[in-house]
Amino acid sequence: MAAETHLFLCLQDNYGVLVHDKGSGATAAIDAPEAAPIEAALSKTGWKLSDILVTHHHGDHTGGIGELKRRHRCRVVAPRHEAQRIPDVDETVREGDTVAVGTLSARVLETPGHTAGHIAYWFGADRLAFVGDTLFSIGCGRVIEGTPEMMWQSLLKLRNLPGDTEIYCGHEYTMANIRFAQTIEPNNRALAARAAEAAAQVAARKPTIPTTIDAEKAANPFLRADLPDLAAAVSMAGKGAAQVFTEIRARKNRF
Ligand SMILES: [Zn+2]
């Protein structure tokens, strides 16, 4: 039975998303930025919350957990390495663990860098990945607790997922990310096409996600740090990918 998803905005620019298994009726919220929009999404879909799958400990991903847990008695799954900073955790997971949502199955991928214990949930059979604040459409998360090298390795792990995997990230940052990416690769045609597509989506008040791994590989400079053309574009021809990534990430911080 294929997974169904429902995406909605929370807080300022966070995304909430529900993953539903029609067969069993199980429904997981990926992160819980705040309770009210998640309750509204549950009402709209008629789905019943069974699980919350947490990607990392930041308050804009965990603020709604307590209220939702009290009301729905749902299971809270969180990354082992930062579970002590997340409320009401029932189960901790690490690299390679499997998380079931009804009959759906997710593999846990550790993607440290934004936070030290950040994880992603990859539903391989359903071609879905929930990547929190590690990978964004045409961008990546700020490196807060890890090192740029660590973040680059985490992004490579996501880049290795099948190309048609749909990527759900934690924030609507696409237009700002595109403006930055165009300073790095002004002649990238896939990026120009993505800019036009995203502008149309925003004008129509539609989300710019999910994206796909293939789309990101073509246009996201942070996934392209090991390409000679990109190194040359930032005057770092011949330098290692992690060094190039570090430079691009530093430029984005100043942008
Ligand atoms: Zn975060």
Question: Can you offer a commentary on this structure?
Answer:
- By secondary structure, the chain is α/β, with parallel strands linked by helices.
- Helices cover 35% and strands 24% of the residues.
- The protein contains 9 helices and 14 strands.
- The strands form 3 sheets. Strands 1-2-3-4-5-6 form a 6-stranded mixed beta sheet, with helices on one face. A 6-stranded mixed beta sheet has the order 7-8-9-10-13-14.
- Strand 2 (14-21) and strand 3 (27-30) form a beta hairpin.
- It binds zinc ion.
- Zinc ion is lined by residues 56, 58, 61, 114, 133.
Q: What's the SSE pattern?
A: EEEHEHHEEEEEEEEHEHHEHHH
What profile does the largest beta sheet have?
6 strands, mixed
> What Rg is obtained from the alpha carbons, in whole angstroms?
18 Å
Oligomer: single chain
Count of beta strands: 14
Terminus-to-terminus distance: 44 Å
In this entry the ligands are: zinc ion
Main sheet: which strands, in order across?
A: 1-2-3-4-5-6
Structure, briefly:
Helix content is 35%, strand content 24%. The protein has 255 residues and is an alpha/beta fold. The model has no long low-confidence stretch (mean pLDDT 97).
Keywords:
six-stranded mixed sheet, 14 strands, 35% helix, 255 residues, globular, 9 helices, alpha/beta, binds zinc ion, single chain
SSE layout:
Layout: E1 3-10, E2 14-21, E3 27-30, H1 35-45, E4 51-53, H2 59-62, H3 65-72, E5 75-79, E6 91-93, E7 98-101, E8 104-110, E9 119-123, E10 128-132, E11 135-136, E12 139-140, H4 148-159, E13 166-169, H5 174-184, H6 189-203, E14 211-212, H7 213-219, H8 228-233, H9 241-254
Parallel strand pairs: 3-4, 4-5, 5-6, 10-13
Antiparallel strand pairs: 1-2, 2-3, 7-8, 8-9, 9-10, 11-12, 13-14
This protein binds zinc ion.
Zinc ion binds at residues 56, 58, 61, 114, 133.
